[in-house]
Amino acid sequence: MGTTSTDRIEKQLLLRAPRSRVWRALTTAEEFGSWFGVKLHDPIALGAHVKGTITHPDYAHHPYVMIIERLDKERVFAWRWHHIIDGKVDLNGPTTLCVFELEEAPGGTLLKFSESGFDQLPLSHRDKLYRGNEEGWTIQMGNIEKHVSATA
Questions:
Q1: Rg of the chain's alpha carbons, rounded to an integer?
Q2: Contacts of 41 (CB under 8 A, 6+ apart)
Q3: Who wins on pLDDT, 6 or 132?
Q4: DSSP the chain
Q5: What predicted TM-score, i.e. pTM, was given to this entire model?
Q6: How far apart are CA 19 and CA 86, in angstroms?
Q7: Cα dihedral 123/96/112/60 (nearest 10)
Q8: CA neighbours within 13 Å on the CB side: how many for 57?
Q9: What is the rounded CA–CA span in Å between residue 63 and residue 90?
Q10: pLDDT tens column, 4-52
Q11: Of 17, 61, 62, 119, which is least packed with CB atoms within 10 Å of its CB?
């Protein structure tokens, strides 16, 4: 379930797992990569530029870099990333901000997600990137749900 605007994607999901389990799935490089579809070469740490390789065959030739902005243990995980524009990732171009917030909820953890900053992206690609990420985050929320359920 989610709401959207032209600049922001929002999703939320009740995960039947404790916050510590969801936090580990989000902030451990190997686990994050497992459900997200990347192989991270660096640990996730505050201020780090975590590099990796996308494992999806259609995008495997593109670099993946997350710039970790916030790590509030078992509460907030936030990073910035660059997007594929005209068939390449511009590592000097604008980024969007992805934020995961974890809250205690009856029966598990409420995971709230947002990605913002689309209005900064090139106008010629903004709508396509927004629509693609809106769909992609719906899929990724399902992926993390399966991951924490299978590996609790």
A1: 15
A2: 50, 51, 52, 53
A3: 132
A4: -EEE-SSEEEEEEEESS-HHHHHHHHHSHHHHHHHHTEEESS---TT-EEEEEE-STTTTTSEEEEEEEEEETTTEEEEEE--EETTEE-TTS--EEEEEEEEEETTEEEEEEEEE-GGGS-HHHHHHHHHHHHHHHHHHHHHHHHHHHHT-
A5: 0.92
A6: 38
A7: 100
A8: 0
A9: 10
A10: 468 999 999 999 999 999 999 999 999 999 999 999 999 999 999 999 9
A11: 61
The tokens for 80 are: 């910035």
CA 24 vs. chain centroid, Å, equals: 14
Domains of the chain by start residue, with CATH: 2-150 (3.30.530.20)
Q: Is the pLDDT of residue 152 over 70?
A: no
